Amino acid sequence: MVLVSLKDLPAVNLDNLAPNAATLIYDKDGNLVTEVGLENRVPVDIEEVPPLVKKAFLAAEDNRFYQHHGVDLRAIARAAWHNVTSGTTQGGSTITQQLVKTCFLTPEQTFKRKIQEAYLAIQLERRYTKDEIFEMYLNWVYFGEGAYGIQAAAHTYFGKDVRELDLAEAAMLAGVLRGPSLYSPYRRPEAAVQRRNTVLDSMVRYGYISPDEAAEAKRQPIELKASSIDDRQYPYPYFIDYVTEQLVARYGEAKVFREGLKVYTTLDPKIQGYAEAALADKSNFPATTRDKNGILQPQGAAVVLDPHTGYIKAIVGGREHTQARQLNRATHSHRQPGSAFKPIFVYAPAVDRLGMGPASVIDDIPLKFPNWTPTNYDGRYRGLVTMRTAITWSINIAAIQVLQKVTLPAAVNFARQLGISTLHPDKEGLAAALGGLYEGVTPLEMAGAYGAFANGGVYVEPTAIIRVEERNGTVLEEFVPRKKRVMKPTTAWLITDMLRSVVR
């Protein structure tokens, strides 16, 4: 097994890493939209990095870096014990292993890959000094917000040279590495502060700083570089961000940002432009204000897709797109769907599984449960109503009555077939009939689910990518739409017809 794992390994040579080539992203017609991967990277010599900054990274990532030979068996054992006893995952990779993973290997998480990573790390340690490895690591790792390397990160977040970073700033940058999106000081400041404080505690534990120094640094507020809040310099940023994220998840950062892929997407620039204009038009929203973080409120998002192919034509994740606030509400924000969830969770399974239909009669009468007394939005009760009337007027009581017949487990299973991935069977209640969910859903998943109604009961998994090619034109992967029938054609037609009654 070990011999097989070591076949065809790349040579570990930090001296001639290939220059990076940007990935090219095309629209549905094959027109070039933009490039991604042109890096914000400013190399810095290890001598220019202050000792306190080095110690912050050692404390956060690999305290025994200067003692081990590429693989730290003690750290692996500690991580394994932590994973078994706490139920949470803790890594045991050294700085050398992380550098190997970043520069020479793909991101797959397999036993074979771990063996390769360890072997190459040992080879790297034999060829280069600790300081050379540490310098390359600090210059190559990704800090989020487009910043590669410690110098670019210092400029991006704090507007400083790395030599000017103070203890709190050094700890925050060291903490960001564990998850640039999870611990982004711009997008998740509370999580970033917690992570910074964890790094400071580690520095105390390893004797790098005193408890008083850590306490003082913890009291320091985040003072980010204001000029980092500039609009992205590429078109259709939410769509491009989503495609880039999908590519990185599939192929890893190294391939996406350095190997010059050609990515043909489903983007329709005309539709995308209309969607962006609609979200940017203040007249489409109530009175607009900005919250304490400077974000426009109320917010919005949009997804446009072809229900027959699953091709995403447009994505707009918010009313503004800025480098500091690049949350994509269309694909990442789980929000309560409200009455828009009724056809997916209540009425479609009732028609498909129970044989109910537009003329089925439902009793709209007061209901009371031990911990909940639901009401209709207008406070009225209409008595016996048809399903068509219940949908037309979005009658809450009727939806709850029907869900009780369908049953929660059946409704959860049905919605999952429609691509709703965030349901929790043990935590959802009857309020789910009204779109009151434990976690919520994304606009992208809602669009995909509704697409099944428009596609005769066939769900097509949404995709933004058609084809990916290597730099030389070799096809790396073709994305064939994943389709499955999730309801009878008659169910899809009846639900669609009843939904038409809402807008007539």
Can you describe this structure?
There is one protein chain. The chain is an alpha+beta fold and 504 residues long. It has a domain at 45-148 and 166-223: Biosynthetic peptidoglycan transglycosylase-like (Penicillin binding protein transpeptidase fold). The protein is 42% helix and 11% strand. It is built from 19 helices and 15 strands. The longest helix is centred in the N-terminal third of the chain and has 17 residues, at 111-127. The termini are far apart.
Counting DSSP H or I runs of 4 or more residues, the number of helices is: 19
List the quaternary state of the chains. Answer: single chain
Euclidean distance between termini CA atoms:
66 Å
- Rg is 27 Å
The average pLDDT score comes to: 87
The total of beta strands comes to 15
CATH architecture of the domain at 45-148 and 166-223: Orthogonal Bundle
Beta-strand share of residues = 5-15%
Structural class: alpha+beta
User: Main sheet?
Assistant: 5 strands, mixed
Q: Tell me the name of the CATH homologous superfamily of the domain at 45-148 and 166-223.
A: Biosynthetic peptidoglycan transglycosylase-like
Q: Can you tell me the CATH topology of the domain at 45-148 and 166-223?
A: Penicillin binding protein transpeptidase fold
CATH hierarchy, class of the domain at 45-148 and 166-223? Mainly Alpha
What overall geometry do the principal axes of the alpha carbons give?
elongated
Low-confidence stretches: 79-90, 227-232
State the share of residues found in helices, binned by percent: 40-55%
Strand order of the largest sheet: 2-1-5-13-14
